[in-house]
Amino acid sequence: MKPSHVEGRRTAEWILLDYIDLVVHVFLEEKRRFYALERLWGDAPLVDLDEPIDAAQAAPRRSPRKRPTARR
Q1: CA-to-CA distance for 17 and 57, rounded, in angstroms?
Q2: Which of 24, 30, 69, 71 suits 50 as a labelling partner, its CA being 20 to 30 A distant?
Q3: What are the extents of the domains in the chain?
Q4: What is the model's pLDDT at position 45?
């Protein structure tokens, strides 16, 4: 599956992959320690990606984000 948006490829220290329902952060170790996203999201529920979930547990699917249109 291709992400809908990718940021950070130029410096490759922190790459963000946006899949609409899921955002993946890929860090160099130094950047991961510096930004400490686990601290920012510490109250978010943990999801075990190795365990299958049924549809009742899954979050409702949102429609893809619309890109802003340029004003003339």
Answers
A1: 24
A2: 30
A3: 5-40
A4: 83
The pair of structure tokens assigned to 48 is 């075990």
DSSP-assigned beta bridge partners for residue 27: 14
Q: Which amino acid belongs to residue 57?
A: Q
pTM for the model: 0.54
Model pLDDT, residue 1: 87
Cα-Cα-Cα-Cα dihedral of 70, 20, 7, 30, to 10°? 150
Distance in angstroms (rounded) separating the CA atoms of residues 53 and 22:
15
Q: What is the dihedral of CA 15, 43, 51, 21, to 10 degrees?
A: -50
Q: How many residues are given for the chain?
A: 72
Q: 35 φ, ψ to 5°?
A: -80, -25
